[in-house]
Amino acid sequence: MHADLAAAMVRAAERIYGAIDGLEVLSNEGHSRQSLEDEIERRVEGWSQGGLILTDFWGGSCHVCGAAASRGHGEVVVVTGVNLPMVIDYLHNRDTNGPAELAARLQRKGVESLRIQRGSPE
Fold this sequence. Notes:
The protein is globular and about 50 Å long. Helix 1 (5-17) crosses helix 4 and helix 4 (84-93) packs antiparallel against helix 5 (99-113). The chain is built from 5 helices and 2 strands, in the order ααβαβαα. The protein has a single domain, classed as Phosphotransferase system, mannose-type IIA component (Rossmann fold), CATH 3.40.50. With 122 residues, the protein is mostly helical.
């Protein structure tokens, strides 16, 4: 993700979920497009069962490099537009769903988490 957004999101998730293992954070800060793509590819090379690359928004450098780096590495799915409810849902369900199913689940969670409230809640 851009700047320190991913690290901040993981810190917030730890406050809700507890200690988190097996989740890597990568910022685009200080990376050229090629070095970011290389770093993502280095990480996904070891994913024997596939996995998810979570990015902040569609079309940004993190998304573009994640999509390029995931090619040829099995079932690696890029999910963009990630928010905190999606990260929490990911943590709760990452061991019970394959990458494609988990990506679809996170997409639904992201949509469901967007709400508009006017006035006082009823």
